[in-house]
Amino acid sequence: MLYPPPRRQSHYWSTCRIITQELYLRNLVSPAGEDIAITNGNVTLHYTKYGRGPLLIFVHGFPDHADTWATFQVPFFARTHTVLTPYLRGYPPSSVPADVSAYSSANFVSDLLAILDHEKAEKASIVGHDVGGGVVQYFALAHPERVEALVLVNTVVLPNFVRLIEFDPDQEYRAKYTIALEAYHAGDPVPQQVFDILASIRNETYRAEVTKYIEKGPIDGMLHFYNDNYPEPPYGKNISTAGMVEKVPTLIVWGTDDQYFSPKNYDGLAGWFEKGVRLVTVPGASHWSFRDQPEKFNVEVDGFLRTVGELRG
Questions:
Q1: In contact, 88 and 73? CB cutoff 8 Å
Q2: Residue 3: inside a domain, yes or no?
Q3: Are 283 and 289 in contact (CB under 8 A)?
Q4: Alpha helices in 28-156 (DSSP H)
Q5: Beta-carbon neighbour count of residue 137 at 10 Å?
Q6: Range with the lowest mean pLDDT among 53-57, 60-64, 128-132, 236-240?
Q7: Per-residue pLDDT averaged across 228-234, rounded?
Q8: Which branch of life, at top level (predicted)?
Q9: What is the model's pTM?
Q10: Residue 1 falls inside a structural domain
């Protein structure tokens, strides 16, 4: 099943196309948030809670942090949803465990589950960018009954990616920056590749903010994710994709100027999404498509969530 565009899309676009990002920002009023800390085993997780309504969780990527959603997405979606923006483990102020094994996909899944349980939420819609996109896919695979809808933003599609990184020269070239991240050990200088990624953030103010956050560190936990989860050379391994079919309605948002993930990630999607998938491209947007073109991103996600809600009745 392929999800159609939301019925209200043409009306939205007639408005959005004439609104500059500056004017769009003026119409967004950021609500006050509640900072919450919970424990999951020996890890403390921090997140901020906004608004009221169905639960909607935004999960950041790397190099980034939870406030990446605060400028554009929180003020838009907190009008209709309870919005949570967690800091992943390894990202201060959440705990930064020293052991690389603490950064397994199972532990990230457990963290999201702990947040839902703390909120006493039966289900949530979950948005993930970059690393966060991988985390939310693993969560939806493990706990589809807890996911209302899934939104993936400039991230890998797991079953496609695990094959591309092993056998596709283009994806291997795009991922070459990760080799230095995987080789990182606690206490090493921050790899230059991290600053190269930061340089691709188009907004100067936000680029400076995230750079300061990364330099303050510690960066150990952020890179331990790559140590524990990311494929590394030598490539050419046959990795099983068994059990990687998502069983929740899914929207994929793809900024076409992404330097890091091949567009081949989005080939043959229907076979990997049992409850339907919709792919939206954002021409000219970078890896941070939700920041580059927030009007389009917000409208597409809002329309998708409304469609899922209508179909579920």
A1: no
A2: no
A3: no
A4: 73-77, 105-118, 131-142
A5: 27
A6: 236-240
A7: 85
A8: Eukaryota
A9: 0.91
A10: no
If you write DSSP's letter for every residue of 180-216 in order, what string do you get? HHHT--TTSPPPHHHHHHHTT---HHHHHHHHHHHHH
> Under a CB-based contact definition with an 8 Å cutoff, are residues 273 and 304 in contact?
no
> Per-residue pLDDT for 8 more than 70?
no
Instruction: Name 77's Cβ contacts closer than 8 Å, sequence gap at least 6.
Output: 51, 56, 83, 298, 301, 302
Domain presence at residue 2: no
Cα–Cα distance, 168 to 176 (Å, whole number): 12
> Which strands make up the sheet holding 147-153, listed edge to edge?
34-40, 43-51, 82-86, 55-59, 124-129, 147-153, 250-255, 277-282
CA 75 to chain centre: 18
For 147-195, what is each residue's pLDDT tens digit? 999 999 999 999 999 999 999 999 999 999 999 999 999 989 999 999 9
Residue 242 backbone phi and psi in degrees, to 5: -60, 140
pLDDT at position 135, please?
Answer: 98
Are 84 and 49 within 8 A, CB to CB? yes
Total domains in the chain come to 1
Q: Where are the beta strands (DSSP E) in the chain?
A: 34-40, 43-51, 55-59, 82-86, 124-129, 147-153, 250-255, 277-282
Within a domain: 4: no
Query: Which range marks the domain in which residue 187 is found?
Result: 9-312
Residues 6+ apart with CB under 8 A from 272: 157, 159, 160, 244, 245, 246
